[in-house]
Amino acid sequence: MHEPYAIEVEPEVRTWLELLPDRQYRKVEEYADLLATHGPSPPCRSPVPSGMGCTS
């Protein structure tokens, strides 16, 4: 398995994140973890024909 992707957060985004309620912040963190793990091409949830853009 490869190293996780690094996610750069701009200062204005960091400020916005700090203002989110805990529940919303945790949701953003969950998706950021998925992005760091899978990169820009997240795995598909269901099979799709070749060439549709999803990777497994």
Q: What can you tell me about this protein's structure?
A:
By secondary structure, the protein is mostly helical. The protein has one domain (1-56). The chain is built from two helices and no strands. It has helices at 11-19, 22-38. The mean pLDDT is 81.
* Fraction of helical residues: 40-55%
**What's the total count of β strands?**
0
Shape by Cα distribution: extended
Query: Which structural class is indicated by helix and strand composition?
Result: mainly alpha
Mean of all residue-level pLDDT scores: 81
| Total of domains | 1
Largest sheet: none
- Point out poorly predicted stretches: none
Count of helical regions: 2
The succession of helices and strands, N to C, reads: HH
* Residue share in β-strands: under 5%
End-to-end span in angstroms? 13 Å
> What Rg is obtained from the alpha carbons, in whole angstroms?
14 Å
